[in-house]
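Please decode residue identities from the backbone states below.
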């Protein structure tokens, strides 16, 4: 298992959290997505390391911004 942590900006409510979670969950190999609304922290647990570009694309698709790491 691999775990990566990212910061997402622009989320303001539970719907935002759901959107980000849903989009990231569609990335192949992702097992779990934890989103903390207050901090914008997103933890992705997956079978193999997930490319940051894939996470960025998913977050953008949800309508938010992944802060550069």
């Amino acid at each position: 298992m691999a775990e990566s942590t990212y910061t997402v900006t622009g989320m303001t409510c539970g719907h935002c959290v759901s959107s980000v979670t849903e989009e990231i969950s569609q990335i192949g190999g992702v097992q779990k997505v934890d989103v903390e609304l207050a901090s914008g922290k997103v933890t992705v647990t997956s079978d193999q390391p997930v490319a940051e570009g894939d996470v960025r694309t998913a977050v953008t698709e949800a309508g938010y911004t992944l802060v550069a790491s």
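Observation: Strands lie at 2-9, 30-36, 41-46, 65-66.
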